[in-house]
Structure formats: C-alpha cells, structure tokens
Amino acid sequence: MRIAFIGLGNMGGPMAANLAAKGFAVKGFDIVAANLDKVAEQGVVAARSAVSAVKDAEVVITMVPAGQHVLDLYRAILLPAPRGALFIDCSTIDVASAREAHAMAKGAGMQSLDAPVSGGTAGAAAATLTFMAGGDAEAFERGNPVLAAMGKRIVHCGGPGAGQAAKICNNMILGISMIAVSEAFVLAEKLGLEAQALYDVASAASGQCWSLTTYCPVPGVGPASPADNGYKPGFAAALMLKDLALAQQAAEASGAATPLGAHAEQLYREFNTAGGGEKDFSAIIRHLAAAPRS
Ligand code: NAD
Prior knowledge:
The chain is built from 13 helices and 9 strands. The N and C termini lie far apart (59 Å). It has 2 domains: 2-159, Rossmann fold, CATH 3.40.50; 165-290, N-(1-d-carboxylethyl)-l-norvaline Dehydrogenase, domain 2 (Orthogonal Bundle). Helices cover 51% and strands 14% of the residues. Strand 4 (59-62), helix 4 and strand 5 (86-89) form a beta-alpha-beta unit. By secondary structure, it is an alpha/beta fold. The strands form 2 sheets. Strands 3-2-1-4-5-6 form a 6-stranded parallel sheet, with helices on both faces. A 3-stranded mixed sheet has the order 7-8-9. Bound molecules: nicotinamide-adenine-dinucleotide. Nicotinamide-adenine-dinucleotide (NAD) binds at residues 6-12, 29-32, 35, 50, 63-65, 69, 73, 91-92, 117, 120-121, 235, 239, 242. It is an enzyme of class 1 (oxidoreductase). Keywords: Oxidoreductase. It comes from Taklimakanibacter albus.
C-alpha cells in the first residue's frame, strides 16, 4: 500500500519509520529538511513537496501541530491526490477544524478519519500508540491495518470529529486528576503526613486514579514515573496546556459547563508562563507547592 506521510516531527518521524519497517511504501514530507533526512535513513522516501508526496498515494497521513496546519494542507493536497484516497489526520486539533477537514475530504471525493493518538514519543517509537478514530465505518475498516502498524489499540469513537472529542475529554480528566493528586500531596506535607502514607491509603481507597498509582507526581513514591527522573517528559506541560485549551474551546462552542477544566487550563497556563512548559505535566505539583494560599 502506498502511503504519503506529512509532518515528520517528534511523533510523525517514528510513526512513518514504523510504517516503512512494516513493508508499506511510504513517501514523506516535512517543511524542515532535517526531519526529512532523518526518516530517509529509515526507509521513508523523501518527497520534494506535500503535493508530490500525495500524487500516487492510497492513504495520506498528516501529523502536524494544529488545526490551521491541517486545513491549509488539505487545501493544497486534496486536489492532486488520487480520487478515493483515505485521508487520516493523526494530529491533535480542535473538533471544529477536524469536522471541517472531513467535509473538505468528502467534497473532494476522498474518505477520511480523524485519528489522534495517546502514548507520546515513546509510544510512537515502539508502535504502541492508542488511536482514537472518528469517521464512517468504511473508512475505519480501511484505515485499521495502517493504524495497527503504528499502535496497539485502535478505538472507533464515532463519526467525524469523535476521535478528537475523545482525546480532549480524556486529557481534561487527566489534567484535572493530576492537579487533584498534586494538591492532596501538597496538603499532606503541610499536615505532617508522609507522602508514602498518603499513597498507601489513597492508592487502595476511593482516591485511587491513574495520576496517583501509575504516574505519581512525588519522587520515590509509587512505580517509576517522570517525577523520579527530574520531571523530564513523558508528556510535556506545554502539550497538556494545548489539550486543555482545546477542551475549553470545544466546551465554549458546545455550551458545556466545565468549571474544573477551565481552572485546570488556567493553572497549566500559569505553570507554562513560569517556565514549566518543557517539564513533564506532573511537575505541576512543584508549581502548586510553591504557590501562596490566596
Ligand atoms: P512536532 O512539532 O515535533 O512535529 C510537527 C511537524 O509538522 C514538524 O516537523 C513541522 O515541521 C511539520 N509541519 C508543520 N506544517 C507542515 C506542513 N505544512 N507541511 C509539512 N510539514 C509540516 O510535533 P509532534 O510532537 O510530532 O506533535 C504532532 C501532533 O501530535 C500535534 O498535534 C501534537 O499535539 C500531537 N501529539 C503529540 C504528542 C507528543 O508527545 N509529542 C503526543 C500526542 C499527540
């Protein structure tokens, strides 16, 4: 199967390399030449432009920063691509742009999926990503073997935009729960309660959640996590802020009340402004520990 892969950054590079390693004929393009050179060493054929990458593609995958990049690309590559090709956007973008991208693809006679991922750069390298897909059943069936070559779990979430909706709703839970767990450890310390003691109780009680038991923000407590590695990401706080902002954008557009989501976005924004964007998102605990009580 001939695949065009556009956007070969931290995620797209290893994803495209995995497709090539598994026998797909992959033509790649990125506006940064160095990214293209890197994947060219891993079996991806370097194209001169996005348009030339898609010319004979059966499947076109995009992995770029934001909705505007996807829509600009679709404007440029839908026409030159073979009619009937499957367009899969794996970027994390706003739900409205994802739905617009689907509509543009349909208008050009293409099939389409939004298929954002979780699992980070480690999952991209190891081909263990989770894909959350939105689009019709036929497009999902067709895209499944391609996504399976880059991930280990592929969930069909519903129609156009449903993958993006699942991604931002999940990450809103994650952002809020990490703040909740962090606040509890900050309070425990003030009360003279050992972090390990709180962990022993809460991890087996009603406070149990992934942010506590899999990804504990306190060094030396629970299984190994970025906290034990100087808060090196992992999942960077800047990306958590991006996802929380997308959730707020969607909440505003749809009229959903998400007061804790809004507060989580504000706290991650403060943390990013204070220079924490490159740290793992669990480092929010240090921001909370240093904050004066207002
Ligand atoms: P990145 O910035 O490393 O890569 C994006 C790439 O897209 C860059 O190499 C850039 O040059 C390229 N690009 C932008 N516009 C282009 C265009 N018009 N034509 C060709 N190439 C273009 O970002 P990333 O970390 O790889 O993330 C990509 C997407 O995946 C984002 O939407 C991000 O939110 C999402 N995501 C990232 C992670 C993560 O841990 N990094 C995890 C899950 C989801």
